Amino acid sequence: MAGTIVESGAVVMRRRWRRASDRLPLPFQLQVIEPDYIDPSKHGPLSTAPGVQADT
Fold it and tell me: Which listed site, 13, 31, 32, 42, has its alpha carbon 20 to 30 Å from 1?
């Protein structure tokens, strides 16, 4: 993550909820995604997917 921040100046964090049967210490994982994976041609309102949040 630190390398991505130094290289591009930003990262996107995604919270992934996990099943209890995965037997992880926390019920979620954080996924670090490089901003290069964001499609710049997409714009407008966000989808209504649960957990999607935008700072306005």
Answer: 42
pLDDT tens-place values along the chain, 56 residues long: 556 556 666 778 888 899 999 999 999 999 888 877 777 777 766 555 566 565 55
Integer angstrom CA distances of residue 56 from 19, 46, 53: 31, 12, 10
Burial of 4 (0-12, 13-18, 19+ CB in 10 A): middle
Are the C-beta atoms of residues 32 and 4 closer than 8 Å to each other?
A: yes
**pTM across the whole model:** 0.47
Please, are residues 28 and 16 in contact by the beta-carbon 8 Å criterion?
Answer: yes
